[in-house]
Give the backbone structure.
Amino acid sequence: MKIGFIGLGIMGESMCENIVKKHDDKVYCFDFIKEKVDLLVSKGAVPCENSVELAKNSDVIISMVPKSEHSRSVYESIVDVLDATKTCIDMSTIDPSVSIEISKMVKKTGAQFIDAPVVKSKPAAIEGTLGIYVGGDEKTFEAMKPILSYMGCNIIRMGDNGKGLVMKICHNALVSQIQNGVNETITLAKANGISIPAFTEAVSYGGASNWYLDGQAKKLEAEDYTTAFSIENMAKDVNICVNLAKECGVKMPGEENALNVYQTALEKGMGKEDFRATIKVVRDR
C-alpha cells in the first residue's frame, strides 16, 4: 500500500517522517516549499511535483494543511484522479462543515474519506504519540487505523464525517479556557508575591491541577515563547469554535473571552509566537 503525504509543516514533517520510518512500502510527499520536501526525501520519502502526481501514485492520500481553504484546494485539485481504489485522510484542523463538503466530493468518485485531526504538539509528532480524533465510517476507520498508528498512540472514532473535527475543536476550546485561567491566576499570584514554580507546585496539590500548567510552567517562568504551536494557529481553532457554537445556538462566553485574548495577541503582532505567549496579553491588561 503506497502512501502520499501533502503538507510538511511543523507537524506534518514529523508525521510524514514517522510513516517513512515505519511503513514497508513507498511514501510520497509534497509541499510547496522545496526545502521541506528535500528534508523528507533525505529520510527516505519519494518527492512529487504536485498533489495530483502524489494522488495518482498513492493508495492512501494524507493531507495536513493549515486552513479550510487549503484543504478544499487540495481535494479539488486531485478529485479527477480519485477512484474506488483510494482513501483520503485529511488531518488538518478546519471547519467541520467544510470537511463534510470535501468528504461528499471525494466519495462521489468512489474513494473513501475520513477526517483525522490531531492533538498534542511537535514533541508528540516527533515521537509518534499524537492523539487522533476520527470522523468517518467504521469500516474505513478500521482499515486506516494501522496507518494512523504510525503517527499516534491514542486514536478514537467520534462518529461520521466531520465528528473528528468537532471533537478537535471542542478539545482546543477547552485548552484555550484552561490556558486563560492559568494566565489570569498566575498573574494574580505574582502580583501577590507568589512565584510561578511555587504556584505550580501548590496547584498540583489540589483539584486545579492540569496538564497545560504542568507542561508549560518552566517555559512560562523563563519567558520562553519558542514556537511549538503558534498563536495564529490556536486563534484559528478558537474562532472555528465560536462560529460552530453560533451555528448550533450554543452560548460560550468563556470561549468568546479566549477569542478576545487571541485577537488582541494577533493585533500586537504576536501571531508567530507560541500560544503560551498569550500570558503577555493578560499581564498587559
Notes: The chain has two domains: 3-160, 166-284. The mean pLDDT is 97. Residues 95 and 243 are 9 Å apart (CA to CA).
